[in-house]
């Protein structure tokens, strides 16, 4: 499985569709960090990122590696001509952005690790959070979009492209006429449950939606269908749900998770007999221990694993 | 990844809910085989199986290992007290059957390998079929039930229990009022698309359903939703569909696969840009090269891998 990490000084980039988070440090307790808005110009933000990493290197010493967790879809095949690029994203200005190449040009002699933002976050939780000691688990983020990182048998899942579990098709709740917001699929999971979907459904921000509003029932029911599907396919030991939506706005994170867990149990209907899916479900579906830092800590872990 | 196999003389058991297939041999081209109906008495059929394997050993020489691919749910954790048992199956008489123990008692000094029937079939296709050279692919069977074996990064997926992808929840086709036949979930994938589901929907056997019957439209549409979901979660390099239903009855296997492929492309809607999911989809969704022998050949592979 994974080698242990050595607390080497490394750089980290969490490349998101809304913002880039950058950090330099040796472990989650020792991070200098900064954020830049992603904007429409990859050249601009990547120059800000590499300038800042260069400054930190001059200040703290030679970076041993840089880890990059990126939004996607991205090309993860090291032997591909477009390795390290964001490929078919609908995000304006970002299609075919060579994110790894931009970092490589500024840091030509440092090992670089590149993976999805959600595989990075899964790795962060594996080393320092709720994935510790597990060989099969899922890290889901529900925010601007929905995505998931997957560990199977102690390895991050890559495959042909990489997981795009946010685009799962789900059963519709009877009477729910909300069309969904995914430009590709309408009412896939992301189309029904992302932050923008919740806003479109309730016509107010999550923080303003009252706890008894029907939007929370539907949000947690669709998430439960998706999690039950993931359990049937991947048989994880745990499901970690991060991102902004899981905080539950006025409903609160605890109540949000209680609703999801109860509905996953109903969806599975005790077909799979295993305590984590039954009486121990409170420890099976959990928020990230690293909170909103799972992604950037994961990029640190990607970097440190590259030289372990 | 996997070590190469050495064509050792081994025994193989494909334990199905309807029949047990047993074989002894060194490779798919050299198999002596027999079948027994599963029936309601595990003791009875397991005695037939072990008697036959003993006879073959006396005839052909010492078996170097025995591989067992079993229907389930089963316990695959070597350190569990119920390792090697069929656990929570609804099949009459079979709950808590210690299938591995029954073989172990008769063959106390031979290495035994135990996995799901579908992981076994995936392994058979990996060594001798349409999974050759692939590190990430799925083997699905659609017959009495629906199940799938999964290879991720060159390893068979196990996790908390094992994959039970037949119980995926899917969007309903508008106007389709068929309730589904799964005793646990009603209209999950297996409830909508297994052989018994197709029979219940069309009120005739697959072989009798005319090609233009609506049942084929619905069967292939739900399979397409499920395959699209599996693509989003697992990002396989290929999806192999075996089992009896994929032969398509009067529709024919070629037309059946054409309909599934076309509908997977519509479901994915070119969100994932990769030739196997687009122009090369004819080579992405395929029947097993080993045909109906994927399972028993897989049990041979399980045995040979155990001693490789």
Level of helix content of chain A?
A: 25-40%
Reported by name, the CATH topology of the largest domain in chain A is: Nucleotidyltransferase, domain 5
Shape annotation of chain A: globular
Most extensive interface: A-B, 48 and 48 residues
Largest sheet of chain A: 5 strands, mixed
The name of the CATH architecture of the largest domain in chain A is 2-Layer Sandwich
CATH superfamily of the largest domain in chain A: ATPase, nucleotide binding domain
Instruction: Work out the number of β strands of chain A.
Output: 12
Spatial gap, N to C terminus of chain A: 12 Å
**Integer-rounded radius of gyration of chain A:** 19 Å
Order of helices and strands of chain A: EEEHEEEHEHEEEHHHEHEH
Multimerization state? homodimer
CATH class of the largest domain in chain A: Alpha Beta
Order of strands, main sheet of chain A, comes to: 3-2-1-4-7
The helix count of chain A comes to: 8
List unreliable stretches of 5+ residues of chain A. none
Work out the strand percent of chain A: 15-25%
What structural class should be given to the helix and strand makeup of chain A?
alpha/beta
The averaged pLDDT of chain A comes out at: 96
Number of domains of chain A: 2
